[in-house]
Amino acid sequence: RLGRKKVKSNIVPEKSENGGWRKDGDKVDLAEQSLLNKLIRHSLVRNRNQVEVLQRDPTSPLYSVKTFEELRLKPDLLKGVYNMGFNRPSRIQENALPMMLAQPPQNLIAQSQSGTGKTAAFSLAMLSHVNPANKWTQCLCIAPTYELALQIGQVIEQMGKYCPDVKLAYGIRGNRMERGIKLQEQIVIGTPGTVLDWCTKYRLIEPKKITMFVLDEADVMIATQGHRDQSIRIHRQLTKDCQMLLFSATFEDSVWRFAEQVVPDPNIIRLKREEETLDTIKQFYVVCKEKEDKFTALCNLYGSLTIAQAMIFCHTRKMAAWLTANLTKEGHQVALLSGEMTVEQRASVIERYRNGKEKVLVTTNVCSRGIDVEQVSLVVNFDLPVDMDGNADNETYLHRIGRTGRFGRRGFAVNMVDSKHSMDIINQIEMHFNRRITKLDTSDLEEMESLMS
Ligand SMILES: Nc1ncnc2c1ncn2[C@@H]1O[C@H](COP(=O)(O)OP(=O)(O)O)[C@@H](O)[C@H]1O
Ligand SMILES: [Mg+2]
């Protein structure tokens, strides 16, 4: 058996995808971001990386499945899976599903970026695990927010569409229950506070009868005050034999420490996110004086190119609003993504942009993190990404630019330089990535056409 230390040393902590407070001082709400990604995603995120598996018992055979049939699911459940349009298991599901369904039960910690099929995987495991003849709660799943719990519940309901005897209850605020009367639903999905109450204060659930416990979005969970402790308190009520499953999009030390507490002797599955690359992207900079000048450059650029879609980054909400107003005045159809919008509003803006209703998306950095829009052909840094000390924020630069030129397509990135300081930043970025950023004169049409073809 692998010692804890050993296991940990093999797992290199990954930089947070979107972690908590940003360097620029704006708060990123992880739960909101996660929900937003759910709302705008309709299919799996592509990932060509290999799955890393660390088995609790390295001598036991490692199973992976290429089809759902191999899992020998109940026919009604298999029908539900196919009905969702799933043809074959996703990368992470290939390994995770056989592990979660194995007898005797095994604990699992799984990490992969959002959109790779984690929630669908454990939903399937829960539906397969329960005995519909037993009218008590057997699977307990907790998620960081009301909205995320509802999202998971919808997946379970859809997948379990042809399993009418399996019932689901939502342990979320506002769902009032009579004290002391045990629930008959085999699956309960909820938030830590309410679920804890249901187990202890209200006695709706018999914790000792829970045989599968799932923690979804563990990284978001521990970022929320109190959720971590409530989760641990729920965990303490359960028996040692209860199967524990934990899922997370990122895996920083804090997530790892939490996971170790609630998931003893785990198998570990990890799928690294596909690296963003600058290889297929041509990078330019344009020298400007002030924001009006940048605006003119942008219009020249846009007018002279046949651009499928562009994404423009500003530093502040105010700048984003100003730019949007001016582009609109010029007759462009522009979508604006800004911090004060609700998650639903943002989702609908992104949806419209994706469907090509608007060709230009103006956004602040905070708003855009973690969102995958694939068909962008031009990224413009109207303001360059800097950290709090005013240095180049290389990570953010890569993240912004990495949206273009994906999946073999070619992309362009244009940076607006309006001071000696911003020229320094461009130089820092060039050095960091060891890639040339070419000067572009947007008033010279011919030069532009030849450079950007
Ligand atoms: N095996 C699969 N085949 C096709 N689509 C899938 C499969 N598994 C999940 N999906 C879809 O991919 C998207 C992301 O899945 P989800 O389970 O929410 O990922 P995660 O929990 O890792 O964010 C959802 O739209 C889901 O319906
Ligand atoms: Mg999920």
Bound compounds: adenosine-5'-diphosphate, magnesium ion
Taking the alpha carbons of the first and last residues, their distance comes to: 57 Å
> What would you give as the CATH superfamily of the largest domain?
P-loop containing nucleotide triphosphate hydrolases
Total number of strands = 15
Domain module count: 2
Instruction: Tell me the structural class.
Output: alpha/beta
Summarize the amount of helix as a percent range: 25-40%
Q: Can you tell me the CATH architecture of the largest domain?
A: 3-Layer(aba) Sandwich
CATH topology of the largest domain: Rossmann fold
By DSSP (H or I, 4+ residues per run), the number of helices equals 17
Detail the poorly predicted runs.
1-26
Strand content of the residues, in percent? Answer: 15-25%
What is the residue-averaged pLDDT? 87
Strand count, sense and barrel status of the largest sheet are: 8 strands, mixed
The CATH class of the largest domain turns out to be: Alpha Beta
Query: What is Rg?
Result: 24 Å
Strand order of the largest sheet: 1-8-2-7-6-3-5-4
Q: Shape, please?
A: elongated
Keywords: ATP-binding, Cytoplasm, Helicase, Hydrolase, Nucleotide-binding, Nucleus, RNA-binding
Catalytic activity: ATP + H2O = ADP + phosphate + H(+)
Pfam families: DEAD (PF00270), Helicase_C (PF00271)
Protein name: RNA helicase
